Every structure is written in C-alpha cells, then in structure tokens.
C-alpha cells in the first residue's frame, strides 16, 4: 500500500492549479463565489466556457469522444483543485449524466449531434426524471410517449427539474409501454425544450431560490431519432447514469474549503464548544475522504463502485448539512434578517457578520441534499440489500 | 399538584384555534408575508377586539391580569398556525417592561397597546455584543435638558412598524431602559424581512433627546426588569415552538399516510414510523419543560430562570430535529416554499437564534 500520489499526478495538480489561477479565469464569477452570492445564467456559461477553453470540459470522458481520458486519480485531483479555487460546480446534467449515456448507448448520428455541444457548453441540459407521483419510486413514472409515424407524442409532467429555466434540452424517462414489470416499459428520450407543448413553471424553495421547476408536456412532438438505444431499455440507461452521478457526490473538496472558511471566521470567537463541533466534523470528513479514496483506488484498478458509493452519498450529505448548521450557529442571532439568496439591496445591509445571510441560504437550501439523487433512506435500503444481504 | 388548564384557559385556546382556522390558512399567511408591513392590520384589530392584546396587563391599566399560563396558551396556538403578527414584541416584551415602570405616560401607552392603536418594540440587541445584551455600546448620557441617546440597535422585532421603542442602553456603566418615539429627531430606521417571514429593524441613534420622564429603569432595576423580560419572552417563543412542533409532526403523519410510493403509503415503512415517533417524543418533552417553566415563572420561583435556560436548550434541539425530520419525510415537497412544512423549520431556526441560542443557554445553565 502507498498513500502518496505519483510525481506525474502532482505535476498534473500543479498544472490545473496554475490554470485556475491564470488570468483567463472569469473573475466576476470568483468574486460572487467568494461572497456567497448566487450566480447568473451568464456567469455559469462564462465559467463552463473557460473550462472548455482549457480543454478540461470532458474531464470524466474517454478521449475517443473528445474527453480528457484522465485517470480516476486525475479526475479526483481536478475536482479538488476546482473546489480549492472556489469554482462553481461543473453542471452534471450534460457532462456527467446525459453525455455518458449518449456515448455509451447512443448511435453514431446521436453522438455526432449532441456530444460536441455538451463539451463546448453550447447546450444546457436538464434532467426529466422525478414526477409528482414518482420520487423514491422512480420506476412508477407515468409520463407517456406514444409512437405515431416518425414522432413520439409526449404527455405528462416532470418535477424538481433543476435549472430547467435555463435549459435548451431535457433528457427524459418516459413510459412507452404499460408492462407487468414497471421498469420494462421505460424509454430514454431527448427533447428540445423549444418544442411546442412544453411549459416550465418555477418552484420556489424554502431559501427563496428559483433553482427547480415543474415541466409540463402536452402533445409534445419528439422526432423518433431522439430515442436513445432501444425502446423499453430506459431503466437500464437510467441506472447506468445514476452510477456515474455518484462520483464526487460526497462533495469532500467543497466541504474542506468551507470548513477552512468556518475555522477562520471563528478563530477569534473564543467558543470552545463550537471549535469542538468543528473538529468533530473535520474528523468525520477525514474518514469520508479516505473512504472516497479507497473507492477511487478500486476504480483505478478497473473495479466498479457498487453499493459502497451509497456510503459517500449518505455521509457526504450529512456532513454538508452539519457544516451549514455550524455556520448558522456561528452567526447566532444575526441570521434573522434574510431576504433571499441574492442577499440585500445594495443600499442596505443589516448588522452582523457578512456570512450570516449566505449561511441561512445554504442551510435551508442544503436540506435537499439528503432528499435528492435517491434519498438517504433509499441509499440505506440499497446498502442493506446489496451489501448486507438483508 | 394540578396540571390541568382551567376552563377559562381552555376557552382562550379554543378562541385562538378558531381564529387561526378561519383567518390563517397557508394562503392568508403568504399574503401577509408578501406585504410591506409583514403583518395584517385587520388581524391586529381582531386581536384587540378579542381582548388578546390585554392579556398580560394589570386590571387597573385595562388588562386582564393574566399570567404566563395564558400567554403560553396563546403562543402554542400561534405556533401551530405560524402567526406572524407582532404580539411578542409589542405585547409581551414591551408590556413586561412598561407594566413594571412608573413613567407618567404609562397608562396611556398601555391603553393604546391594548386598543391596537400603537405598537411598541424593545431594542435590545446590538451588532457587536452577541447575546450579552446588557454589555451594550449604545449610550444614554445626561445633558443639560435631560438625556441623550447614541449608538445603534439591531434585530429590533417589528422595528419598521413600531410607534415607540424601549431602548436598552448603558448609562454610568450600568444598564438603562429608555422610551423613545419612532419619529424622534436623530433616529433612523431600516427594516428587513427575516428568514421566518417576519420583520426586524436596525435603529441608529444620533444625539436623540430623551426626557427624564421617559426613563423606564436604571441600574439594577433595569437589569432585573430586562432579565425578567427575557425569561417571559423565551417562555412565549418556546410555547410557540411547542405548537409548531405539534403541527409539524401531525402534518408529517398525515402526509406519509397519503403519499404512496412502491404501491403503498410511505407511513408503512418502519424507518419513517420511528422518525415520527422521535418527533412526537421530542415535542412531549419540550411541552413538559415548557409547563414546568410556566408554573415556576407564575409563582416567582427563584429556580425559574434556570428552567427557562433548560427549556431554551430543549427547544433548540427538539426544534431542529422535528423541523428537519418533517422536511425530510415530505421529500421534495418539504423544501418547497409552497408547502407550510418548510416554514416551520424556518421558524424553529429563528427561535433557536433568538435571546441566546442553544449553546448560550447550556453555558448559562451550567454557571
């Protein structure tokens, strides 16, 4: 066993760090990130275009599809550096979700049509999975697609669709057949958000943010060549996609940076109890980080992360949530004034530390993390079934 | 020993419950939150007509001379419906201090509070002193004509609407409580929305004149009075938290019975049942400490302040658990602002932060 990274890995790390601190980096994005201010659509586009300009967009893709072909260790180091440089998260919808599904299960024409735009961030994708009646029990979904000639006619609705208001395309799980086994009638369909019959309605979350949406489909005509793979195989592709999504879900690097920030903030608070809680969190984070590294090492040797990655999701989100609680605790009563994730009007600022309002936003917003991506209860069911065999 | 509410107290509870059922559904409340003032004037008038604004005041000032028990009854019901009207600031906080004072204006001000005509807020917090409210930097100094106030106060509940303020300041290295008009020269006010849909204000005093008739208390008397106000206020928001916890677990039980996944109501799953049982247990334990503190305050028990700290700690811990579990069990619906459940979590978060958070009261309990 050897705990250290290789010379080449460290050199790689240096290159990434230098690139992220270079003059091409969009400074307005970094400024907002440091202040904890919400990013606009254009900010996100600027950031992704920068990542593309460095040739890093396909960080988790094989070279044959225009990706970097990086090793799992390199991917790990890259994501670490992004967090250290206080970058936004690279949007997963195109790059980590639909992209790998297209290059793994799509036909050549689909690969040529969609993959380059994902890498160049010319298209913003969103995910059409959850429905009002299908959350944890995703396979019970009801949005229907009926083949008529060379088009599917789609009717139904999707919910909790992250950033659908910005999206150009949506990838959807739709029901093409009513089968005995509910997983068998599901297909994977790519839909242009500009198609007539699609309506996006905002859902405002408890932090006051507009991040998620309901998406309604009324007789939406989708060309049949936008079906991925085979009809009725959508569930297989969806499961493949979920496995891909797991990578980095623990959010370790981001938590590390936030934790350092909290330690700096509270260093002169002379609050032994808060310091103790921060230390306990840091210890839990160490255990989680090394668990992630073990997973990584297994992948590097050609293994496939199984249900173990559910540990990363569960403990990762628990730590993320606890961290937001500690920020709120540190801010004390000054969390009271709160007018939304964008902060306050520029001509008025309430008393108290400037991290107070972003801490409230983060605390409320992060309640979602134990709910999304398969709730933590579902993750525990997965471990119970797949690992413990009970 | 008798731990039953009286018929009169039960009637009061019924009355508040009915009011909230008729006037305070989620949509009514949303409209109030979206308004500039952050409360509903019609509701406030009704509070006055129903006599609620008179609850804690002495009879010779037009009040009902009710004590902590009646206040907790009111607040428990307010908590269930997440009532945002400024009852805590204007009636409880200001009322406690005004009742104990001897200023000439006293009965006139109390009458106006009871009639709903005026609202008064206590300016107790400051930017840099955290929960050590009495160590404040705002000064009340003597000058030729009387006194003058300088400094700034923050987190003043209902600060944008209040007609008068009771200001905690330092005078001769000791605490002082002074009454000032909201429109007095030298006072500027900025109002903010709070995370739980209420409002608070930031006040800046620049050479604000205060006549000696407006000094409510000085020195040890001010300290005693201020601490008593904190105790009563903590009791009230704790009762409110008990009400909010009760609603949270009941709504969660209801939701899990209705929500079907995997072809069955999710309330069938034992892991969720146990979570809801935990929510229920925490609510009951909080209620116990709330009643204990109520009765101790009611009988001027010297142990009351310590029980109040214990209660505040329990409210902080239980509120977090109940609020977070309620959101989690509602799934995505729990984080939607269109559902009431997330608003309970926000109120628990605000309540924990006010008048000393959980850790502050653990320390106070130990000392």
UniProtKB/TrEMBL annotation, chain A:
Which one of the record's GO molecular function terms can you name? oxidoreductase activity, acting on the CH-CH group of donors
Pfam families, alphabetically?
Answer: Acyl-CoA_dh_1 (PF00441), Acyl-CoA_dh_M (PF02770), Acyl-CoA_dh_N (PF02771)
Q: Which UniProt keywords apply?
A: FAD, Flavoprotein, Oxidoreductase
Cited InterPro entries: Acyl-CoA_Oxase/DH_mid-dom, Acyl-CoA_Oxase/DH_mid-dom_sf, AcylCo_DH-like_C, AcylCo_DH/oxidase_C, AcylCoA_DH/ox_N, AcylCoA_DH/ox_N_sf, AcylCoA_DH/oxidase_NM_dom_sf, Mycobact_Acyl-CoA_DH
Q: Which cofactor does it need?
A: FAD
Signal sequence interval, chain numbering: none
> What region holds the Acyl-CoA dehydrogenase/oxidase C-terminal domain?
232-388
Domain Acyl-CoA dehydrogenase/oxidase N-terminal residues, every copy: 47-120
Q: What are its GO cellular component terms?
A: plasma membrane
Span of domain Acyl-CoA oxidase/dehydrogenase middle: 126-209
UniProt lists the family membership as follows:
Belongs to the acyl-CoA dehydrogenase family.
Q: What name does UniProt use for this protein?
A: Acyl-CoA dehydrogenase, central domain protein
Automatic annotation (TrEMBL), chain B:
Q: Into which family does the record put it?
A: Belongs to the acyl-CoA dehydrogenase family.
Family annotation (InterPro entries): Acyl-CoA_Oxase/DH_mid-dom, Acyl-CoA_Oxase/DH_mid-dom_sf, AcylCo_DH-like_C, AcylCo_DH/oxidase_C, AcylCoA_DH/ox_N, AcylCoA_DH/ox_N_sf, AcylCoA_DH/oxidase_NM_dom_sf
UniProt keyword terms in alphabetical order? FAD, Flavoprotein, Oxidoreductase
The protein in question is named Acyl-CoA dehydrogenase, C-terminal domain protein
Name the cofactor(s). Answer: FAD
| Residue span(s) of domain Acyl-CoA dehydrogenase/oxidase C-terminal | 228-363
Gene3D superfamilies of this UniProt entry?
Acyl-CoA dehydrogenase/oxidase, N-terminal domain, Butyryl-CoA Dehydrogenase, subunit A, domain 2, Butyryl-CoA Dehydrogenase, subunit A, domain 3
Q: Which PANTHER family match?
A: ACYL-COA DEHYDROGENASE, ACYL-COA DEHYDROGENASE FADE28
Gene Ontology terms for molecular function: acyl-CoA dehydrogenase activity; flavin adenine dinucleotide binding
- Provenance organism: SAR86 cluster bacterium SAR86E
Pfam families in the cross-refs: Acyl-CoA_dh_1, Acyl-CoA_dh_M, Acyl-CoA_dh_N
Domain Acyl-CoA dehydrogenase/oxidase N-terminal span(s) in chain numbering: 6-117
Which residues are in the Acyl-CoA oxidase/dehydrogenase middle domain? 122-208
